[in-house]
């Protein structure tokens, strides 16, 4: 049973409802942390994963799709998932994303060929990336505008904490098992979180009107749902069996025949693999009447254009070799395609009756929030990539020690995110984000003058890294808060997804551009050396490269601070939703 809530004020929960929403936020945040950890865990396992699909260590460039595939899935479809979370119950989107993440993790764990491994990583990116905007939008549903700061800070903190814990957990798993165990643990953890969110969902906060359940669902539809569920389980099971290729069955004279490839050695192009994929296609056809109208309403044309534009950008820069090029091998073909998709998207957005990104979302403070998020991404990646590089140039740190130097920064970011969210109780979005980025920018200016002795001087180096980390973290919650506060209530998912996309794009593009500029200065310094075989002089040129990247990160952070201060210095306690938020909300009873 449903009833409309007050048109201007979200319903205030009692103590039990307060505990319930905290439990739901905790479970959703844990899922976000799990996906964030998976982003970085692959760095340690990359060489083992390459060997698992038959790629030698001498062909490292062929492993690029393992990383770029995850980024592509994470970024390209994020606006579509954000839009779907506005049309459906947020909890359903969280559960769906977790299932996609589970399937992607299982496919990755079973992969013995590169196309299958990349497919698994793309699915992981789609599922893991979709958790973030759905969780941020859930915060907007369950907390009024003047109380969102702390929960938004929690989401930002756990996302950054997951990034810190990812390599650590990966190292622990690799110490006692192989790389596939990492992804099987993903499956187990995601299934536990699925069960928790499903149990908590019976009392979820708000539902979009389209998500109100229909009590008069026809019997035929129930039968089709049961049939589709059975076929889905069978399809996934048969496909998984084909990928697992168990030796006890394969070597059997009678039972091994379905596992014989039609051509080559592919486990997918086998009778049992084709049957598994065929069952999944049948499920898609049977369930099309349920998901196709929702996708159409979400604007498939707009989603396709966004995916092409973002996908072209990601593949252009993520696949490049910074030592040789800014633009990747396919970039000169992909960038024009992405530009055309962007032009077509602008035309479509103007003329579509119900565009993917509703009109009014990217406007006023929303657009400025995206600019700040983009610049935060560029500043973050400068620290994440080049602090370990500078540490490795010294005689003090090995690879593990260099990673521990970076941990000082990474641990400060989630603390800053919590402080930033808490500060919004008294201060405006601009005051918190601007101050944070100003601190981060000044810290990066100091880092741009670091030498080898500086990074080895533990106390001062730690102080600077902590200040920069706290500053970057302070900006996370205010940017999300500003984007949510100035977007219609029925577009919170899209608004949140755009903020995440902007930060990820800033990281991908910023890494390529800053590294290219830094390397340009490096080679220029090398050319001026009287003796280009002098090891100390070459290390000095490497320091110049790192200093250049830090300076570029400082410029990004300071520009971000300048824009962030325009988001508002004073707090907005008691502020209500924007004009479109006065539409009735539907609350599950």
Short description:
The protein has 589 residues and is mostly helical. Helices cover 73% and strands 1% of the residues. The longest helix is centred in the N-terminal third of the chain and has 38 residues, at 15-52.
List the helices and strands and how they pair.
Layout: E1 2-4, H1 15-52, H2 64-76, H3 78-87, H4 90-110, H5 114-142, H6 149-176, H7 179-200, E2 206-207, H8 219-244, H9 247-250, H10 271-297, H11 300-318, H12 331-351, H13 365-392, H14 399-423, H15 429-447, H16 452-456, H17 458-474, H18 476-485, H19 492-527, H20 535-564, E3 586-588
Antiparallel strand pairs: 1-3, 2-3
Structure in words:
The chain has 589 residues and is mainly alpha-helical. It is built from 20 helices and 3 strands. The chain has a 3-stranded antiparallel sheet with strand order 1-3-2, with no helix packed on it. Helix 4 (90-110) packs antiparallel against helix 7 (179-200), helix 5 (114-142) packs across helix 19 (492-527) and helix 11 (300-318) packs parallel to helix 19. The model is unreliable at 1-16, 202-214 and 573-589 (pLDDT under 50).
Which characteristics define this entry?
mainly alpha, disordered N terminus, three-stranded antiparallel beta sheet, globular, 3 strands, 20 helices, 589 residues, disordered C terminus
